[in-house]
Amino acid sequence: MPLKVAPNGIPLPLLPPRHPDSHKGSFGTALIIGGSIGMTGAVILAGKAALRGGAGLVRVAVPAPCLSIVAIGEPSYTTIPLRSDPAGKIAWAARSQIAQHWKNATAVAFGPGVGRSTGLEAVAWWIYANCPVPLVVDADGLNALAARRNVVGVFPVPIAPRILTPHPGEFDRLVGLGKLDREKRRILARELALTAKAVVVLKGYHTLVTDGDRDYLNETGNPGMATGGSGDVLTGLISALLCQKLTPYEAAVLGVYLHGLAGDLAAEDRGQESLIASDLIEFLPRAFQDYRRIMSPPST
After folding, report:
1. Strands 135-137 and 107-110: what pairing?
2. What are phi and psi of 54, to 5 degrees?
3. Fewer CB within 10 Å, N or C, the chain?
4. What angle do the packed helices 182-196 and 168-175 form, to 10 degrees?
5. Cα separation of 2 and 86, whole Å?
6. How do residues 160-190 score in pLDDT, each as one tens digit?
7. Are the C-beta atoms of residues 296 and 247 closer than 8 Å to each other?
8. pTM recorded for the entire structure
């Protein structure tokens, strides 16, 4: 559907209202794949953001040695133990487990806290090529794709929608042309979206969302959000919006808008210097409330 121009002048997708007879199955299942020893916080943040973003069910799949830590992080999602390598990262042998669980998912996210290894490069490429539902790739998932792309040259043709959410450094590694300036990144983001047949979310000051044909330049957010874990929150949020029947482009647009708005609300309350990623999750409810007000202003 086309984006609706809200009363504040910002073109935004309309998230369908919730019917009184809804149940948890009405709002989809998000499968978050990530984590490794020492980086469990990233996947916890993504899982919690998917819950606060409105997914009906959230399942977090992590290397078995990380399971207890991730399970303690939030009682409202369920956890799945995956086969791990000796370093506590997702192993190549975990493919069958992942495939078993994405059959029941509405959307999948891969990358928060996975770490880096040669084995993970192969896992990331396999997930990207084979996941049968919309997939969000972030963090070291993107770095793994970039490393393998340097070998094979092109992304595989996706069998379902893909959303790539790089920050500038990750984007530069994805396109493999060295350090780029902001304008060059925006031009290449559109080209990458077209060639990879994906939605690209180029994060940063005025985050760009593009599918190669349409662009959205986000105006919410502030420098206080430049803190570890902020991108993991966005990954979980976009996954949740995919679960609620938004298209990939719509989910990315609304996700970056709400993510930035939550950051603005948090900074107003706590200051930019003290803002941490979990604050974004805490202020997501207010961001959703403000969004609903501007999309459905009271009649006069």
Report:
1. parallel
2. 105, 5
3. C
4. 60
5. 48
6. 999 999 999 999 999 988 999 999 999 999 9
7. no
8. 0.96
